[in-house]
Amino acid sequence: MINSLFLISHSGDIFLEKHWKSVISRSVCDYFLEAKEKSGDPENVAPVLQTPHHYLISIYRGKLFFLSVTQTEVPPLFVIEFLHRVADTFQDYFGDCSEVVIKENTVTVYELLEEMLDNGFPLATESNVLKEMIRPPTILRSVVNTLTGGSNVGGTLPTGQLSNVPWRRAGVKYTNNEAYFDVIEEIDAILDKSGTTVFAEIQGVVEACVKLTGMPDLTLSFMNPRLLDDVSFHPCVRFKRWESERVLSFIPPDGNFRLMSYHVSSQNLVAIPVYVKQNISFLETGSCGRLDITIGPKQTMGKTVENLTVTIPMPKSVLSVNLTATQGTYTFDLTTKAVLWDVGKLNPQKLPNLRGSISIQTGAPKPEENPSINIDLKIQQLAISGLKVSRLDMYGEKYKPFKGVKYVTKAGKFQVRT
Amino acid sequence: MTDSKYFTTTKKGEIFELKAELNSDKKEKKKEAVKKVIASMTVGKDVSALFPDVVNCMQTDNLELKKLVYLYLMNYAKSQPDMAIMAVNTFVKDCEDPNPLIRALAVRTMGCIRVDKITEYLCEPLRKCLKDEDPYVRKTAAVCVAKLHDINAQLVEDQGFLDTLKDLISDSNPMVVANAVAALSEIAESHPNSNLLDLNPQTINKLLTALNECTEWGQIFILDCLANYTPRDDRESQSICERVTPRLSHANSAVVLSAVKVLMKFMEMLPKDLDYYGTLLKKLAPPLVTLLSAEPELQYVALRNINLIVQRRPEILKHEMKVFFVKYNDPIYVKLEKLDIMIRLASQANIAQVLAELKEYATEVDVDFVRKAVRAIGRCAIKVEQSAERCVSTLLDLIQTKVNYVVQEAIVVIKDIFRKYPNKYESVIATLCENLDSLDEPEARAAMIWIVGEYAERIDNADELLESFLEGFHDESTQVQLQLLTAIVKLFLKKPTETQELVQQVLSLATQDSDNPDLRDRGYIYWRLLSTDPVAAKEVVLAEKPLISEETDLIEPTLLEELICHIGTLASVYHKPPSAFVEGSRGVQHKRLPGSAGSGETVESPDTGSAAGVSDAPPAVIPSQGDLLGDLLNLDLTPPATTGPPPPATSGMQLGAMDLLGGGLDSLMGDESEPLGGDLGGSLGMGAGFGAPSAAPAASFSAPVSGGLDDLFDLGGGVGMPMGAYSPPKTVWLPATKGKGLEISGTFARRAGVIQMEMTLTNKAMSVMTDFAIQFNRNSFGLAPAGPLQVLTPLSPNQSIEVSLPLNTVGPVMKMDPLNNLQVAVKNNIDVFYFSCQYPISMLFVEDGKMERQVFLATWKDISNDNEAQFQIKDCHLSSDAASNKLQGSNIFTIAKRTVDGQDMLYQSTKLSNGIWVLAELRVQTGNPTFTVCLKCRAPEVSQCVFQSYEAVLKN
């Protein structure tokens, strides 16, 4: 199981270590730092490394490496999932998961890590359970604590730990009872030069914000559940009901949580909301090139495309660009050589266009690779797969809650090859 | 205010100041001070000097303060073990606290204090907590057993915690079950052969029930544990699969992958014509695809596992090719894995798509990835014949890009395509030749040279091309040099007239100017071939080449099976069996897929059939050495004359003595010798019955005879008296330190046709020893005591006694390593002791071992030369006659003697107690102290031992 955890900044500085079994010298991280050095980009460090006596399993989150050390055969996915959970918890507690924030809250971090793992076995990873034991720091609380000598560690047994619904604590009370659901879909797609879809799929999640008194039992049903053939649920969802009736029946955790994630694969037709007409070319001689990109709406189901941005990572030999945008603004980052074009709202009457010239280092050969165009966008009030919630029912409690569903579609890894 | 304030220091010295604050009367100040200490600790500062002061803060009602002190304790107790004892009382008290949180916290923390002294105090509180009414405490205590086992395994076993832990598997609370399983699995890992997790249908049922209700992490432990179970039949297998399938929809990817492992394994048992089988296959695809939309680290592990799954069951993901298409911003480690799987999934149906993608990748930025993509195109060509033409034209397009490393990779793979489809695509050679100059990597150069040599007859200027390479011959890498040499020889054989000069040049470069032995050797071989027989050379060098295989780097099937059992583990990421890299892998068990349940009626597809065939391979007849200890410990110590149930071994001895060989006991109690160990060649039938127990008592009274007397007999008598067998001097078998004061030294001798085990028992302890008994483990030649150990009087302190134990050879047989190893157990009133000794094999040479001349001659010819072993005996100053006499004393009989060129050849025969004949030729050169023995035997295993006896007899 997990033996130790090291937190390493992206520059290679080990700034926190925690051991759940015997202490392992931090020199073990040298193997990792060496691998990191070799791979150049921190994102390219292989997540599982073997050293003569240990295994190093790491994740890269928020410019930080979470590096765990194990000595025995463990399921690496278990470790990776756990590390992500640790990062999520930090995010949840401190609002951010960065070196500065972690250093500022070392003691809380240490207390949290101690509660999350015992002898390498996960102990309490549900955020509501943790929050009962170790209260998140707030300005008000630290002031109160200093005045009254109070502590931010709970003294009671967290009830959630033991019940059959460990994700929910007992005795929740709200004056305003509300349950909101966000259906968020991301389109992952690869389009080729001519605009035909090479690959497309939709990654969807249903995020919930449930603030309900007592022990409510909810049922969420969809207009078209047949769309969902590949789903993963929060542990609270009763799988049997889903199998037989295709409804989500569950006792919700308190607060924000991800109810379900799903995946609509390329077999079902995935609608592509925009098209891109592009031409990026480099001249054989004269060390310059041309760029011309136009974006237009395709299958938007009558909704408006917003927050449209286009990123084009240029070849390393590109020195500068001189472009004109008919809409929005563009920037060129000299270190990453990326053109970032912030378009904004897509107007179907007047299609945005970016064109101009690219200059290359003199003497450098014509770039070998073709830059690919990455698109980011957002469409409100639309789940592009067509998924629709039909109703939400509550059992087990008497009051009438406020209910609401929001839909939004975003671009995930949406790229156009040139 | 943030925690960073704890790091501010003053000039006075941090430790000093903290010490003062820790001893402050104000509670609040104390707490702040402990926080500062912890903060320093987290960043690796040494604050161990404050140990006593921090421990003093432990007795408090404030839970936060208590937790902080515990944190500190866990970190530093190891360096201050004596101080840590101070904390024990508080722990014990806390374990009785009415608040279960405090009880659990105490037992949890105690387990983390890795100090031997503390563990003793931990036992009682732990025992209570394991039976606590609150499941939260029980669950924490279960993990604590694993911690304690890590510190002191013996203690955990002695205290019976393992049994309590096993009982917790049936606990009513699913969390407790999950933690008990996790703890047991971890303990089992250090005891690979122990049967800690005894899985039977009842426990499986309990686990499956708990599976639905426990946390995601608990589900992982339970699923991994389930995967070790082998269902009795396909129905049970199906019902488990049905109950595990819902886990595929879990949000935690580790749960999903563990569930996939269970399903992949149990699926093996389902008949393929079952509807459910098809349903299950369909259910497996979506979760695997979903794993690929997770974070890149998770994707990587998932991809490594999918790589295995695709090799085992390609049908699961055959329609999902597109999800493996590489995205621009995937990390490189994900890209490379995806590419690998794309090739594995490539088939005629999707090859067009795949090729289009691969071509796209070949223009990406990352050099490693581009190279692999180009190679992948070549692999597609080789795998899918219909696509070969398209692949070749794609590769040609890529060569046109003139990007250096793309061209080089393309040429390397085109070489393979030529080999796979000879005489089909040679038209492209011209294009390849254009790029000759841009090749700077050895592999590409070698590939190009191979192509030129192979198709020399079609390339007009082949000689020029090769000559151009020859200029810098010595600067090339070995690979290129070897290839160039071969290519030029090929060219010469095809166009002998124009290229004579060239071939001479390369041969002289290779043989005379090179330091590389491989190159020189190959050069000489070609040279001689060409100069002696050019026709033969042509046949050798231009021989038809075997086709290269379709799929490259497939994992070998048995390894694949094992890896499938390890899905989701590190082994599956490394694609190596755990035994190859897990530390202390001494006993890692190789896992196998269960065989298909399909009986004679179900039609099995060939692939399951072969899998079942492999996994059902019969266990080796001879148990491995590792099992012997267990076997020995199960021996009963009553003499074999008395029949009756063996007494159970004492509990202390049971340690690790699992009854792996159920048959061990039976065979011991069994009446007849067993048909085991038949590979010793000879029949086990006892020749003349000399080993019968009845012969024993007569000899057992004879006092040990000194070796000198034997020599006298030998020298004087000439004709070997049966009594005069060589007996090595006594050696200490059981030192007094290991025998609780009993020292045993001994030797073996053969007297009057009876094997004697002669021992000196010395009592070096302070008390009288009585009740001696002896027992042997099964051994290669079935040696067994022919009577009880005769120690009639009690052995007083400092007294020695000589005992002679007659042996027979009718005991149970098991091949030992070395062959003449004998494991012995001796019992007295104090304890049972085990030791092993080696007996000279000459003890087993029987008196009627003289073969007839004719028979000898026929047998010598009859035994194949493979069974012949030759040895040298150095520094032996004996004449051939003296040697012959000496050997005869040990029942090695000289049948004939021949003298050739002053060298005496003695032909000898001997027979082992189990009927194996050994024939020998002993060559003695007068004046030369080195003898040569040549042994021939149908059971060549014994040769080494026989030789040792020769040496021992001749030198004594």
Automatic annotation (TrEMBL), chain A:
Keyword Hydrolase: no
Main location: Golgi
Record GO cellular component, one term: clathrin adaptor complex
Location(s), subcellular: Golgi apparatus; Cytoplasmic vesicle membrane
Record carries keyword Transport: yes
Lipid bilayer topology: Peripheral membrane protein
Function noted in UniProt: Part of the AP-3 complex, an adaptor-related complex which is not clathrin-associated. The complex is associated with the Golgi region as well as more peripheral structures. It facilitates the budding of vesicles from the Golgi membrane and may be directly involved in trafficking to lysosomes.
Family named by the database record: Belongs to the adaptor complexes medium subunit family.
Record protein name field: AP-3 complex subunit mu-1
Source organism of the structure: Poecilia reticulata (Guppy)
Lineage of producing organism: Eukaryota, Metazoa, Chordata, Craniata, Vertebrata
UniProtKB/TrEMBL annotation, chain B:
Keyword Zinc attributed: no
GO biological process: intracellular protein transport; vesicle-mediated transport
Keyword Transport applies: yes
Localisation per UniProt entry: Endomembrane system
Region feature (Disordered): 584-657
InterPro entries reported for this sequence: AP_beta (IPR026739), AP_complex_bsu_1_2_4 (IPR016342), ARM-like (IPR011989), ARM-type_fold (IPR016024), Armadillo (IPR000225), B-adaptin_app_sub_C (IPR015151), Clathrin/coatomer_adapt-like_N (IPR002553), Clathrin_a/b/g-adaptin_app_Ig (IPR008152)
Domain Clathrin adaptor alpha/beta/gamma-adaptin appendage Ig-like subdomain: 726-836
Ranges annotated as biased composition (Low complexity): 626-641
GO cellular component, one term: clathrin adaptor complex
SMART domains registered for this protein in UniProt: Alpha_adaptinC2, ARM, B2-adapt-app_C
SUPFAM superfamilies: ARM repeat (SSF48371), Clathrin adaptor appendage domain (SSF49348), Subdomain of clathrin and coatomer appendage domain (SSF55711)
Molecular-function GO terms, alphabetical: clathrin binding
Bilayer disposition of the protein: Peripheral membrane protein
Occurrences of domain Beta-adaptin appendage C-terminal subdomain (ranges): 845-955
Keywords, alphabetical: Acetylation, Membrane, Protein transport, Transport
Family to which the UniProt record says this protein belongs: Belongs to the adaptor complexes large subunit family.
Name of this chain's protein: AP complex subunit beta
